[in-house]
Design a protein that fits this description.
The structure is a homodimer of 419-residue chains. With 419 residues, chain A is of the alpha/beta class. The first copy, chain A, is built from 15 helices and 16 strands. Chain A folds into 2 domains: 3-226 and 394-412, Aldehyde Dehydrogenase, Chain A, domain 1 (3-Layer(aba) Sandwich); 230-374, 3-Layer(aba) Sandwich (Aldehyde Dehydrogenase, Chain A, domain 2), CATH 3.40.309. A 7-stranded parallel sheet of chain A has the order 10-9-11-8-7-12-13, sandwiched between helices. A 4-stranded parallel sheet of chain A has the order 5-4-3-6, with helices on both faces. A 3-stranded antiparallel sheet of chain A has the order 1-2-16, with no helix packed on it. Chains A and B meet through helix 10, helix 15, strand 13 and strand 16 of A and helix 10, helix 15, strand 13 and strand 16 of B. Strand 16 of chain A pairs parallel with strand 13 (365-370) of chain B.
Chain lengths: 419, 419
């Protein structure tokens, strides 16, 4: 069989499985999710052994320590994966719930009801837990899933996948329920992305290059989980104590994630009071500051000049760009021009300024007086998330079970014909 | 300026206008919509003159009578366009409405609020009223719009567009609020479809070739308004009187639209009772029947054998394919395999059969005991529609003002940091 035939077969199987999955009850799905969770724990030996192979290969090709850490599994991480499946089992089922219903003058009764999307393809990099997390969320939402993980994690991903696949088989569900493209050949992705007759949605999760490739060659609708260039703006009416705590948290508490702050904007009227203490706090925590001329002047020695490129960079590390702005308006314009429409916060006690910021900043999540770090499915009370959409269509911000469904109109008549 | 520069400038202007439009009040938008409506009536002379040019060109290149009819304007049609803008002014504004709000344990208050999508590009064919209809709906939903109409309607579209553009200018709104790509050069579409940095959504409205072209080359999210291969299934538990009325209405009342029936499925147990009368009624109305072998046998002479291609064809005319099926299950499988996931109806008095059909048919609109002809924004009580989505992402079925919005999360804190 050619690679093309293999990929097409997977997509076909997934499409026919999706029709079966859409009809499963919540109870049936939860029981199987619990079995998946159990199977990961039971087979942790095989999974860890496969992971060792990946780690050895990664060391041989001299992957960075950070990447090897992302790749590495241990008993604790497998337990976390298992627990994630259990927590998905506990979430409310979105499928079948009514969004709204109404009667129309013709006498028809219209119900707008959530249904699974169908077939979801996920193309991801590195962390092997994504394999079981995505299977769990797609399965609970009644979708079949096609996974294509990073080649450096192939053995680990396959071991996790096969463990779960056995549970699917044991329960008499169709083969296409969960699918894994087990080749390092990148052509498989190109083939996959043209199969819009079978696949309903593709989600790339990874670096900029991967996302650009998917967007430029996909015929399937894409929801991007793109970078987070998040801002905190310290307004001239800010409680500066609160501002210091929030900015520090947004940058330092976990710098390697998409909802961490990458750029801090400060109103010029409070810059001289706010910046010295704030910059010292950052310095003590090992944060490298790249500042505008005013920031450099206030912060004295050791501050590198910020560039336009800095403002567009998701550092994902202890680096922060800092800009002093003349007005709220300038802050909003900067965020809309340089940000990634992910999460941005204003610190202010002025209600009108807050309102203006919340209205005009064009981002998925806009905050007043809170850290951007809260943009997260769990923190939002949605349970586990499959990612954070930086797109505007279908889903924006944290994506969980509801966002993995679409809807249909179910319409009851008693003989109506159109006049 | 090169074509590329022209198109990029349009997209840039549209993106910056979108930020202004998002902030307009409902009152401001309605007033301007009313002025647009008035301006169409006032300038009908110029519009009709431009339309005459298009008609003359169309005759010269020997376009079909049906196409020329779609293209032709008259006083009544211009009044309809004007009234459509007035009715959009009367619709509830979706922008700013709260979808839901809730508190989370951290103390944050989360509001999920509707906001405009941003920049919407619409690529369409033939009917010039689409120009003003789309401008009206996009403007009311706070989006800027980029229009690319069919080349055969270029003069008419431009006359309509310029009339409305003057209203936009007079009201001090930015130039990019409404945009029209006034070239017959098809390369303009290719350029446009790569501008995902400025344009948020593209909607192709037209034939299969146009839609395929857009899907295969767009980097911008696409919502398709694809063909309607709609079915009515007459169950063995159908009220056959009702079935006859509904099937006749679904096929004959207006055969040239996407929600008309193209395929009728009949359970074998009622075929001998139902088909003779039904087929005669169709014959009397001039409907050409293409039938399966059983249908041919029951209908006697004059019925052509249906092919697989027939089952996949949107006739948009007085032709109907008819198939006798062995079971509800076979009907559902046929619809899911050959249909276009648009609108399908079951005629039955059996509640369980109805439930099974409504659940398993994977279409935007599924009916019991009603004509498929009701799939329409107006009939659904949404007011004017911009089209009927045959996609599953973001919008499915009739698309009106709500479907032209996305949402953002507005989050109020009082100093929250992530632990």
């Amino acid at each position: 069989m050619t690679l093309r035939q293999q990929v097409v077969n997977i997509a076909k199987n997934a499409a026919s499985a999706a029709r079966i999955l859409a009809g499963l009850t919540t109870c049936e799905k939860n029981k199987i999710l619990e079995e998946m969770a159990e199977s990961l724990n039971k087979n942790k030996g095989a999974i860890l052994k496969a992971n060792k192979k990946d780690i050895a290969l990664a060391m041989k090709v001299k992957l960075s320590g950070a990447l090897i850490d992302r790749l590495a599994l241990n008993e604790k991480r497998i337990l976390d994966m298992s627990n994630c499946l259990l927590s998905v089992a506990k979430l409310n089922d979105a499928v079948g719930s009514e969004i709204k219903s109404w009667d129309v003058p013709s006498g028809l009764k219209i119900h707008k009801v959530r249904v699974p999307i169908g077939v979801i393809a996920i193309i991801y990099e590195s962390r092997p837990n994504v394999t079981s997390d995505c299977i769990g969320l797609c399965f609970k939402s009644g979708n079949s899933v096609i996974l294509r993980g990073g080649s450096e994690a192939l053995n680990s991903n396959l071991a996790i996948f096969k463990t779960i696949e056995r549970v699917i088989k044991k329960n008499g569900l169709p083969k296409g329920t969960v699918n894994f493209i087990a080749t390092k050949d990148r052509q498989a992705i190109d083939i996959l992305l043209k199969l819009n007759g079978y696949i309903d949605l593709v989600m790339p999760r990874g670096g900029e290059a991967l996302i650009k490739k998917v967007v430029s060659s996909s015929r399937i609708p894409v929801i991007k989980h793109y970078k987070g260039i998040c801002h905190v703006y310290v307004d001239d009416h800010a409680d500066l104590n609160m501002a210091e705590k929030i900015c520090f948290n947004a940058k330092v508490q976990r710098p390697g994630v998409c909802n961490a702050m990458e750029s801090m904007l400060v109103h010029c009227d409070v810059a001289a009071r706010f910046l010295p203490g704030m910059l010292k706090k950052f310095k003590d925590a090992g944060v490298e500051i790249r500042g505008c001329p005013v920031t450099q002047r206030i912060g004295k020695a050791g501050i590198k000049r910020v560039t336009g490129k800095d403002y567009r960079t998701e550092y994902l590390s202890l680096i922060l760009s800092v800009k002093v702005v003349d007005s709220l308006k300038q802050a909003i314009e900067h965020i809309n021009a340089y940000g990634s429409h992910h999460s941005d916060s204003i610190i202010t006690d002025d209600e009108l300024n807050a309102k203006e910021f919340l209205k005009k900043v064009d981002s998925a999540c806009v905050y007043v007086n809170a850290s951007t770090r809260f943009t997260d499915g769990n923190q939002f009370g949605m349970g586990a998330e499959i990612g954070i959409s930086t797109d505007k269509l279908h889903a924006r911000g944290p994506m969980a079970l509801e966002e993995l469904t679409t809807y249909k109109y179910v319409i009851y008549g008693n003989g109506q014909v159109r006049a």
